[in-house]
Amino acid sequence: MSEKYAFIEAQKASYPVVKMCTWLAVSKSGYYEWRTRPLSRTATRRGRLRTLIAKVFADSDGTYGHRRIHAVLTRWGEHASLELVRALMRAMRLVACQPRPYKPTTTIAGDVDAIPDLVRRDFTATAPGTKLVGDI
C-alpha cells in the first residue's frame, strides 16, 4: 500500500490526486493520512543503520563486505543481524571490492640456469631462416 501512496506523491504534480487514487484503488483519506504519518520505528532504525553502514563502507574504501561491517557494528554496540546488514547493503547497492592476492603468471618452474642458451646470445644470421629465436 505504501508503494502506491509513494507513487501518488511522486506523480501529484502531473496528475490529480483524486484520479490517481481511483486508478490505483486506494482511498483519498488513506493517502492524506499516509502523508502525515510519522516513520515507523523499524524505518527509523533502518535509516540509522544505513547511515552507519555507509560510514563503515566509506572508511574501508569500499573493501568491507557485509560480514566485516556486521562485526564493526557489533563492536559499536549496534545490534543487527548479518542478513539485515546484507539486505541493506544490497538495497544501497554497496558491493565490496576484494582485491585478489598477487599471483605471478610468467614464472619458470625450477632453476633458471637449467635452460640452455643454444644461440649463445648471438642473434645475427647469415641468411634468412637460418636462426629462428622466440620469447614468450
What proportion of the residues is helical, as a percent range? 40-55%
Q: Quote the average pLDDT.
A: 88
Shape: elongated
What's the helix count? 6
| SS class | mainly alpha
What is the terminal-to-terminal distance? 64 Å
Number of beta strands: 0
Q: Provide the low-confidence segments as ranges.
A: none
Radius of gyration: 32 Å
Strand content: under 5%
> What does the largest sheet look like?
none
SSE string: HHHHHH
Structure report:
Helix 1 runs antiparallel to helix 2 and helix 5 crosses helix 6. The protein is an all-alpha fold.
Layout of secondary structure:
Layout (H helix, E strand, L loop, with lengths): L1 H10 L5 H8 L3 H9 L4 H19 L6 H10 L6 H10 L45
Helix pairs in contact: 1-2, 5-6
Search tags:
136 residues; mainly alpha
Concise overview:
This protein is mainly α and 136 residues long. The protein contains six helices and no strands. It is elongated and about 95 Å long.
